[in-house]
Structures are given as C-alpha cells and as structure tokens.
Write a structure and sequence with these properties.
69% helix, mainly alpha, 479 residues, two-stranded antiparallel sheet
C-alpha cells in the first residue's frame, strides 16, 4: 500500500491503493453473504432468484441484510480490541477449516470407491471434458472464485514486517500457502466430481444442469444423499465458521489499508489515527460502514466474487511495478530477499493481472470502475477541502498520470472486447474478440509498464522518501 507512494507520489499510490482498499472492504460483505447462504437452511436469510439467462443466485432478504450488518459489527468489535485477541480466535478457526476440508475429501473418496451411494471415477468423462472450452476455464479463474480462493497468499506479504527472517520466511510462506491450498482444492474437486451420484448426473444431462434439492450447499447436499448426516451437519457448521473467519481477517486488513492511505497523505487524517489498543479505530468504523453499503447493490455471491477478484488483481499489479521501479532507483539498497528475473517476472505478472481483470467480464468490471471513478472524485474533494493541511502530500500528477491511463485502458478493453457483448447469434460460441484481447492486453501492459518506469520521481526524492519511510517504520515498531 505504501510502496507506490515512494516511487510515484500520491496520484499513483491513491489509484492503486483505493482499488486495493475497495476489494478488501468488500470481502467481509461477501463472506457474510456466504455465511447466510448456508444458514438459509435454518432461516430465510436468502431467497433464490433466477436471472434472464437462467442462472440461479441466492439474494439476501431484508432479514439477511439485517443479520449481515450484525455479523460485520461483530467482526469490527473483535478487531477493535487488538491483534492479540484476533490472533487467538483466528488460530483455532484456521485449524478447524483445514481439518474440515481434509475430512470431506477422505470421506467422499472412501464412500465413492467402496459403496454405491455416491458416484464413480467415470464421472470425469461420462458427460464430456470442459464442454464450454478453454475460454470458460479462463473466465472461471476470475468469476468462479479461483483467484478469490487464493487471496490468502498476500497475508504473509502484508505481515512481513513482523518476520525475523524475511529472506527465508516470505518466499516459504507464499509458496507453501499456494501449494498446500492447491493440493487441498484439487483434492476437494476430485472428491466432489466422484461423489456426485451417477443417476443424479444423468438426470441433469450435463454438469451445467446439475442441481440439488438443497442447492445452497452442494457439499452438504451430497453428504445427505449419501446418508452421511453427521458430515452434513459439520459442513453446515463449517459453512458459517469458515467464511466468518475470513471476514474477520479482512475487516482488519481493509482498515489498515485505509490507514495507509491516510499515512500516504491522500486521505483524511482521522483514518490514520490509532487507538490505545494499537488498531486504526476510525478506519475500522469506516470499513464497517462501507461493508454494510456493499451488501445492498451486490446481493449475489457470484457477482461479489467477480468484483473482489478484479479489485484484488489490480492491487496485485502494484507489486511488480514497484519492484521494477525500486530496482532502477535504488539498485544497491540493502534488502533481505532478492527475486530473480529482472524485468521479465514483473512484466509477466503485470500482464496476467490485467488479463484476469478482463476475464471477469464487463458486467462485473463496470461496477468496479464506477467505484474507481467515485474514488478519484473523493480524492479531488480531499485535496480541494484539505488544501493546506500539513498531512496532505503533493499529488505529483505528472509522475502518476500513467496509473489513471492504465485504469481507463483496462476499462476500455473490458468494455469493447467483452465476450458476452460480442457473442453474436450463438451465445455458446467463444467470440474471436475473446482471444484477440490477449495480444491487445499484452501490448497495453508493456506500454504502461515502461511508461511507469520512465516517469518515476527523481532519484534524490525517492531516496529521501525511502529514508523517511524506514524511519517511520522503525519508530512505529519501537512505539
């Protein structure tokens, strides 16, 4: 959050930081949505709504919205009393989550391979493989929760300042978190695929047509069909505990991002204040309010997943851009971990971040880019009415204008090359524009990447900012 401020000033750091914040602030709302979707088994927190395209989504009822606001208030309260209480609660919940996923995989595979109550390995091929083609696989990365499921890899980075041995711990934590989750998720997908009863799949006619009577919990529904009532009960409990834990985590993360925006000097000073418990209290309250608002226009879990995915990957793009920038401005500065690959890895990472935003589709991205426009309007008002405030930083527009052009270009590519809008007469076919978007985005990514490198702040100013940043960090740690 703070690094773009060191190399490009306030305009670029706000452009990247606001998107990061809106994605983090929306996460507690989506986790509340997940909790209440499963809890609908016990009370009418959601209702099934079928769209014009025939897709069914669970939308929060007035009761659901009210309970959702209460849940987010609980997340805020637990974060308010400091990181120690939060850490104690989170440790236990993480072990519960891991144990539940492993239990589901083991039980499903055992029942599928040793009984007739579930499906068989023939499910992998009986109704075709990837019937919607590879384009659907790429779209699913952004819209079906794939990227969203892996966002936990960022927390070792966000908490890296507390590491005693970052050279070893940061790459180890990132690689292991992704590898372990990949194994767990792959095992869960295999278990689910084999676990679907053959007659149920045949009746559906395809994987796309697969439905369960208890359709707000497919894993629990499979457990019930297989006579595993004990597992179904555990899954309903887990479906409330697991997303609630993630909502708890991201309430704190979002508050610290708005705190960092204030510390960068391009958000109101009050958001950068810390309570006696060592937490950004005003930012926590602000995050709570925004989360409540986001429950309203995004009641569907599927819509919110796409929204958060696009926002998250835009914020991920700050990493490769800053890495390349600081290598140019401060190549000899001491750092405990060195990533190989020169400009190659950062450029590839930046390109794929842009592609994942495109794969989310214009229907989802339009909401995100509207939020970004609102964010820039807020930035303008902050500078207009906060002019002369000693905490406000210079905008450095000429050094950060590339960030505005980058976001506008992503919006244009998403709109004009949107696959759904260009599908033509056959909505099942993948339009040519979907594949053309890849080379177009590649060229666009290269232009923005090197434009950003060419318009950094002067060498002396970057060095001064880094020195001030390190002094501030050291003082905060000592305090």
């Amino acid at each position: 959050m703070r690094y773009p401020h060191l190399t490009w000033g306030s305009l670029a750091s706000f452009a990247l930081g606001f998107v990061m914040w809106i994605a983090a602030a929306a996460t507690p709302a989506i986790e509340v949505e997940a909790v209440l979707t499963y809890a609908t088994k016990f009370a009418p927190f959601t209702e099934a709504v079928t769209s014009a395209s025939g897709t069914t989504a669970h939308v929060l009822t007035p009761m659901g919205i009210g309970v959702g606001i209460v849940l987010m208030a609980v997340f805020t309260a637990l974060n308010f009393f400091g990181v120690k209480l939060f850490a104690r609660i989170n440790d236990g919940l993480v072990w519960w989550k891991l144990a539940m996923i492993v239990l589901v995989v083991v039980v499903f595979l055992f029942c599928a391979l040793t009984t007739t109550k579930m499906g068989t390995p023939a499910n992998f091929t009986s109704h075709g493989f990837a019937p919607k083609g590879f384009a659907a696989v790429l779209t699913a990365v952004a819209t079906a929760g794939i990227v969203f499921a892996y966002t936990g890899f960022r927390q070792p980075i966000e908490l890296a300042g507390e590491s005693k041995n970052p050279k070893r711990n940061i790459p180890l934590a990132i690689i292991l978190s992704i590898a372990i989750c990949a194994l767990i998720y792959a095992g869960l997908q295999v278990a689910f695929t084999i676990g679907v009863p053959t007659d149920l799949l045949n009746e559906a006619g395809s994987w796309a047509g697969l439905k369960f009577e208890d359709d707000f919990g497919p894993l629990a529904a499979l457990s019930t069909l297989a006579g595993l009532s004990f597992l179904a009960v555990l899954l309903y409990i887990d479906a409330i505990i697991s997303p609630a834990d993630t909502g708890l985590i991201f309430t704190g993360v979002a508050a610290r991002i708005s705190y960092a925006l204030s510390r960068n000097g391009n958000a109101p000073r009050v958001l950068g204040t810390v309570s006696k418990h060592g937490v950004p209290a005003a930012s926590l309250v602000f995050t709570f309010v925004i989360g409540c608002v986001l429950l309203m226009p995004f009641p569907s879990w599927q819509e919110m997943v796409g929204f958060i995915t696009s926002g998250s990957v835009i914020s991920f793009a700050a990493g490769p851009l800053v890495l390349a920038a600081l290598r140019r401005r401060m190549p000899n500065h001491g750092r405990p971990f060195r990533l190989p690959g020169g400009d190659a890895l950062p450029l590839i990472a930046f390109f794929f971040a842009n592609m994942i935003v495109y794969w989310a589709g214009w229907e989802t991205n339009s909401k995100l880019f509207i939020a970004i426009v609102v964010g820039f309007a807020l930035l303008g008002l902050t500078y207009l009415f906060g002019r002369g405030a000693d905490h406000m930083s210079a905008l450095h527009a000429k050094h950060g204008i590339w960030a505005v052009v980058w976001l506008a270009g992503l919006a244009a590519i998403s709109f004009f090359m949107d696959a759904e809008r260009n599908a033509g007469a056959d909505p099942e076919a993948t339009p040519l524009v979907f594949w053309l978007a890849m080379p177009v985005t590649a060229v666009f990514s290269v232009v923005i990447f090197y434009w950003a490198q060419a318009t950094m702040l002067p060498q002396e100013e970057v060095e001064e900012r880094v020195a001030a940043f390190e002094h501030e960090a050291a003082s905060a740690k000592e305090e």
